[in-house]
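Consortium newsletter contribution from the modelling node. Members have asked for a concrete example of what our holo predictions look like. Here is one, prepared for the AR6 complex that several groups have been discussing at recent meetings.
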Amino acid sequence: MPLKLIRDDITRVKVDAIVNAANETLLGGGGVDGAIHRAAGPELLEECRGLGGCQVGQAKITKGYQLPARHVIHTVGPVWQGGNQGEAALLKACYRNSLELAREHGLESVAFPLISAGAFGYPKDQALQVAIAAIGEFLLQHDMKVSLVVFDKAAFILSKKLFSSITQYIDDRYIEEHPVARTSRGGDRQGLRERYAAAEKRLAYEIDQLQDAAMEAPVEESLQEPKTKRSLEEVVNQVDETFSQMLLRKIDEKGLTDSQTYKRANIDRKLFSKIRNDIHYKPSKPTVLAFAIALELSLDETNDMLLRAGFALSRSSRADLIVQYFIEEENYNIFHINEALFAFEQPTLGV
Ligand code: AR6
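And here is the predicted structure:
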């Protein structure tokens, strides 16, 4: 099940367990630790006294008391000492051990703060990367709903290099929306119809182009079309294919299993089986994009899949341009993409 990035105060998050960025005594402190103890009430400290502390990288569980969360998992992150003292492995262990503990207790939803990224001085962009990698690895094996609660201003958490190349990419391509188009935003019926019509036009145009190309190209050349382009026959045969049918066909073609696909798409199992069992299922645009990423589709194929659901990639949507950036870079890690979408304050993909 999926990873969600949220901006909130972790003491207000209603999940089976929130994770506390504690210290080895487990007897409270500042930062998120202080906030959790204040919100949970003095009984939390009482229970912590009986735990005998906790080592760096390890995790222990208590009840949540006055918190909306039923449990608190206390973990101790490493203190940043420049990066050569095994900090990354220890930080990764915090996430993994906390998640394992949650699983042993049959918990289904867990929310983490950015461990070590405050008083312990871990650079925030690197702390976020470790968190996402460790949680992502766990979620490829197990079903759990995990949230990463980020308190800080988003732009600070993405590496400067990635942030500036995405900004550049958007600046080069972003088109201010036409005033007429702007009024049709927000998912209303009229807007959907317009988008659908635009997408249909695009496919018709694409078929024309392919037909022209097939007429003009010498036979040998047309046999050697670039892999990312579909053949004319494929396009024509697939005109009536629904989103759900295309998704299932692509899963087969790529030799993936259902569970590999929905995990890579950051989509939960229930939503996936709904789509599987309803050939006319109408997904949201982020859901379609999530599957396009999971299936490592080219831009052309991504547009095709979007079209099946009545959408198209738009140059007046920053979110679309960010996804497009990653597809062009052939970086199909949904968690990295979501990290970037989150940093640019755009809705993330999947659930
Ligand atoms: N909700 C979500 N995130 C928060 C909240 C909150 N209410 N408050 C702070 N953060 P830190 P550490 C973020 O310092 O670096 C304590 O004294 C914060 O912006 O809480 O692991 C312990 O007792 C930062 O990004 O934890 C230890 O001695 C992240 O949570 C030491 O600090 C972690 O910051 C642990 O230091």
